[in-house]
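Look over this one:
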Amino acid sequence: MKISTETRMGRNKRDPREERSSFLILCEGPTEKGYFTGMRSRRGPQLDVDVPKGDHISAVREAVSRVSAEYDAVWCVLDTELNKTLTASMLREAQGSSVELGLSTPSFEFWLILHHARYTKPFQSADDAKKTLKKIIPFWSESNTRFSDFADKVDSAYARAQQISPDGKNPMLNPSTGVWRLVASIQGRPEATERSTGAGSS
């Protein structure tokens, strides 16, 4: 798979001759941006990856406001940070919209960990997850996350995450991640059509 490291912050109206699906992915920071930008390929879905300014709630609100015919799906990839109040607020903001939330507890780094290891020990914080990932991949850094470093183990991460949280109905499960559902959609896996009840599921 040919990887492009460029992020398209916007694009012209879709060519009616194109049959590629299109995704808008709003995420929290450089780690998520680096990962999903790297998933772009010449023949795969068109991925627009953006990091909105503001907090988690602002990101969800922006996602809701950017739902349009230009995109087949709009996703927010965010951390719960083990905060029940924050997580409940994010779910409420997405309620009633077509926006999907890919939530990770405590953070997106858990999704990256699952590429390399089966891990079920609860984390004490998001920083704890980052430290664990750093032990597994010493050269990893938030600002230098490259999909190519994880590409050959996506199937392993997918299977492990799905096993931990098959229905995504408990986003506060520590640890867990709903990012596998976004990956299923991007890759066109059959599981992507089995959407959990209600908008904003993890």
Notes: Confidence is low (pLDDT under 50) at residues 1-12, 195-199.
